[in-house]
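Pair request: fold both.
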Amino acid sequence: MKRRGADLIIGGDLVLSGYVMSDEAAGWTWEEEVFFCPSLVRDALLAMGEGQVTVRLNSAGGDPVAGEAIRATLAGHPGGCRIIVEGQASSAASLILMGGAQREMTTGSFIMLHNPKSYVYDGAEGMRAQADFLDMLARVYAQVYAERSGQFVEAVLAIMAAETFYTAEAAIEIGFVDAVAEEITARPVPVIDDTLRTQMRRDITTYAALMRDKAPGRTFFAPRDPAAPGGLTAPVAATMELVMTTPNLENTPTPPTVQTPPTPDPQAAVMQERMRIRMLRDMAAPYMAAGRLTEADVTALVDDGTAAEMAGSRFMAVMAARETNPAPRVTERGRDETETRRLAMEGALTARLSGSQPEDVARPYMDFSIVDMAAERVGQRRVPGNFAAREDVLRMAFHSTSDFPVLLENAMNRSLAARYRQAQPTYRRLARQRTFQDFRDHTTVRVGDFPNLQPVNPESGELKAGTFSESKEKTSVKAYGVQVLFSRALLVNDSLDGIMQILNDRGAAVARFEDRTFYAMMISGANGDGPTLNETSRQVFNTTDKTKAATAAAISVASLSLARAALRKRQSIDKTELEITPALLLVGPDKETEAQQLLYKGILPEQAGNVNVFNDGSLSLGVTAKITDNAWYVFASPSEAPCFE
């Protein structure tokens, strides 16, 4: 019998119990399965009207995308939803909980948050793409948790990565839940032990495997994990979140005695065999299509009872035996293999930190953690799993003669430089950049005009010598820097998101610092007229040299015309007109709208006399908060006539 939305309405409440499934998966479930999906929830809410709805939630999770669809549906209900967790709201179900206008938990219930998980049967590129997708999915869901709890996204990401459990009291404290639901008899805090975790893993993964087995058009399956002795194999879940490994509950009671598992159902054994054959054939399908496996190869594994988790190595052995000997590998001369690997790791780490595409030589190291790279550089083949030992690997890499510190420093510097180049501070639009090799004061020579051409004596062919003038100013060079400390946990946990955020912030901060330092010089001195020049002993902006208007004026066609004329009439030190073209109108925030109105190109006047000649796009607008008064400036392009460097 097909389920309806009304089946979720019990006693006037919306009861969401069982697996969270997509609408597609719900179309091919068995009758006895307990589940709910977005379409059923929408139908039930429609039947219950637009008033407030009480939702009773008890689910170990399921499809996270379906969970988000249900959360959005509950959050958008006109009367609002009061969601009460009765039992558990784990993984996708904890996401659904965030859709409640009022979120409550019974005393004996718990919630669990963790990162999404999926399976993929593909090459290296497909696996990398899937990993990137999961990272994106985790951040999207973390934003939902963060908005409802008031936590920072990065804090929620850490909670999800740790697969964290919360009792009602702990969930209220962190903001995931509003209150404890009123009960006649309070239930004890649930025991979350290895037995419960194992059972939840078995429930979720078995469910996912059954859904994949019945799904039309599904072709690839992940290898299966063996179950406990005497039990059934448990296929790895597809598009399911990770099951908890380290619960975060305080004062966990002593786990109860594990009961002897019941005798397996004969029907389950039949289903297991069918699933084994199906997985073998699906695993072999792409290789058969490529002509690398035959029907006989697959039949042989089916007949001899090869387990699905062993089939991959058997298939690979068969295909390897048929391959011809590959061409010998050619090693590039002139570069040590150790140096090649270091540069490849550096390129991989740079690509991951900057979000750029890695070079081909770096691709094998894209899935290496920071600790993996450190272990490789110190010649340690096995990377330990516990925190203390991984920290020792890093300490060894930093305090030995290995090149790991250089690798890490170069990767971070390259990523920082890339972020810096993306910044667009306004000072770069009006100042010329020069590079110096030392910290001495450097003299900038402004030469005069090229000597005018002189007539040549036709008889002697004599050329007359010409001269040009020059003026000098000095540019001082100073060093600036800051030390950024990375915690041990950040490196051991391979928290590249955190490092990326630091590099992003620092790259932009360096550009902002440059902008601030430049304007502190540009508008320094009396009346903000800039530094005093050595050549004239006058400030950069002054009325004598006509670099400053004699009378202050608002930005208008008339005043901007005077500024443009002043630039056009500028003369060289040899008194020759320079014909400088205005390129930038620089203003502070208080004059931004005024400048935009003058430069706007969207309105055409009906009379020629009303034409605004400055809306032709020849003059661009620059705005900086460093200009705090009503001053405004017109500059030429630094490539034509640099005023500052």
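--- second member of the pair ---
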Amino acid sequence: MRNTVGELGRNRAAEQNGAERTLLTLAVRDYGDGDEAFTAGIDEQLDVVAEWWSSPVASDAFHHVPAPVLTRREDVEDFLREHRVREMEGEALVLFITGHGIATSRTHFLQLPGSVKGRHLSTWVRTSDLVAAALDCHAENVLVIVNTCYAGKIRVEIGAMLEDISAERRNRCRLDVIVTSGHDRPVQVRQFPKLLRAALERLRTTAGITTPHLSVAELMSEFERGLKPEDLVKHRLHQVADGGGVLTPTPCIPNPGYRPVRELSGADGARAVTAADYWLDRATGRTQDQDPGWYFRGREDINRSIAAFLGPARTRGVLLVTGSAGSGKSAVLARAVVLGDPAFREDPLCKAALDLSAPDTVPATGSITWAVLARHRSAADLACDILEALGATPGRLRSTEDPVVQRSQQILDVLRDRDDAVTLVIDGLDEADERERVIEDVLAPLNEFCAPLLDQVPAPRADGDPVAAPGGLRLLIGVRSSRPLSESSVDLSEEEQGHNEALKAVFPTAEELRTDDEHSEQDIAAYLHALICEGGAHRASAEEAAALVAPVVWPSFIDARIAGEQLRSTEDPAAVAQRPEWQRMLSNGTEGLLKRDLALVEGDGLPSEVALALLRASAWAEGAGIPWSTIWPQMARVLLGRTLPDWDDMIAKLLKSRLNGYLAHDHEDDRRVYRPAHETLAEALRDADTDWLDRGGAA
């Protein structure tokens, strides 16, 4: 017969606990000796622990259960019984223990006000018993933090205790124990809260970790960053029980710097793209991360063509969105990605954008399956991204196999087995690390599914079996190309034009849309007008200012964005735009605009040369960008040529200044990273011959 007694007990405990995540703080604050500094230190510990584990930006706040005043051993035992700690269930349990501790030859004890010297077994509390109550409960993940003198002594006891916990629980659950001192080290009562709060603030700012939970290693690393090298031995954390690897995030350690990122859902509700990182910024045309406005204007013909391409009447085809650098290719692609997303269309920001748009310029809901950014992606990386788009997992590779060839073949196999049509958006193809191989080995084979069925006969399988007609594939690709000098000119930059022409060669039926034709000057003026009028300001002079700026910056939307940001921060945009010195600066494009902002940022307490070093460091970063942490300051220090005592403060000022508009952010390796907002800006910052601090044109 099935034994239900234990299960019923656990159910009652779960009902009583009422939380999936629980924080227990077991602290002895007052020993009756008049030591007010000690009591204040314990209170500081409890405050920072409670703040960390109840952080509103954490993925899930913990239900905090503080212990009552603890005087005798019986008080501790009553607390464990009252809250049924040994029967506690849930996803995560954290037990924080603090107070005076003492270590005998084999045992560590927690001292209580009623403890009697020499009667440790009767009047003190064996610390390992408290740890055991947590580790052997029914919670799936447990973390115990012991902050007492000589807490490292508990290591041997914990090792023996773990052998008495069932193998099934040890193998299935995450059980971790951290102590704040060695076996022969006392603790300073205010040192732990000081270091933990500093780690808390770093995780909210400089660390940039993007996962909802932290690993034990990440917690210990951020804690130790606040220590001087000579203090590491005394005050660093020690992990005395490893429940699943120090590098694996645990639900017991919420990340106080975590910011939930909304994801676009794509066709059929499947995850398509991360909106906040890239596509939403481009679609809105905003200049700052937190800007709530939608500034995209104009482009009706090109938007109408994209919407028609994404309509239900077509299941196959390739559409190339191309143009010169900064001419808004990513913006029109991002607009289609965002406005075509079924979940995002319910957002007030998106509804405002829909009100501004003609119905036939809006893509069908759910018309895009997946959207990827090719910037700094290898051919193998992009092939894996496409496999994810198709809902497939990249297969295992032998050491002798070419990952690009194998992934590409897997893509073809997956597409042949699908009956439905698939739509992929690929932006920034000209910024991929292996552009030629991406085109020839990853994209070219897809023509089988993109070409019209009347012109394309599916190739038979290798085993000779017949192949059913595939569902079809639509590719919407953004790629840079030089603008012809005239309608009849074909003398284009071979380097820039080569990728666009190569795509036309592998996709003979591809259509092309250019973002830098003569009509785009009007679109730039409309975009500038929207930027300058943000919040209803400058209505009287915005139109005049936009008309003055648009012909100078055309066809660069990136220069228009920077100029618009500068003008809307002035009292009279039209008057500023008319000044000869400002016009001269504007005619120098991104270089002139950035020189002016570098000069003006001095007023924010950020030296121009420091700001430039930080921007240049972001331009030299590989991959998706540069993480703040310790890397950004180190790279900027090398470029500046000297050390600053307050790099983190300088970066914080940069991100709050007008120069923040020159940066975009992304996520890579579970870290928030920063890079120049456009590749043309990155190229300019990497140019060692440019004298960015020449203020001659930055009036």
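Observation on the second member. The first helix runs from residue 5 to 17.
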